[in-house]
Amino acid sequence: MKIRYDRDTCIGMFQCVDEWDAFQKNIDAGKADLEGSTEVEEEVFELDVPDGEELDAEFAARACPVDAIELYDDDGEQVV
């Protein structure tokens, strides 16, 4: 499972932070950071979701009020 986070779209509500500890508050930027992720495009980050953390990642994606977080299964199909 892979999570994709568009940091440029993020408005800093930090609801993802409350759902999954891979997201951290970056108060200075007013945005969340996705710890351990790789920037694949400008301000777009991806991370392979560790085993056992899929549900937390899904909750984080669903909690985002501006849909800055997408979740994909192992076949590349978008889950959220």
UniProtKB/TrEMBL annotation:
Coiled-coil ranges per UniProt: none
Entry protein name: Ferredoxin
GO molecular function: iron-sulfur cluster binding; metal ion binding
UniProt key word Lipid biosynthesis: no
Domain of life of the source: Archaea
SUPFAM superfamilies named among the record's database cross-references: 4Fe-4S ferredoxins
Gene3D superfamilies: 3.30.70.20
Keywords: Electron transport, Iron, Iron-sulfur, Metal-binding, Transport
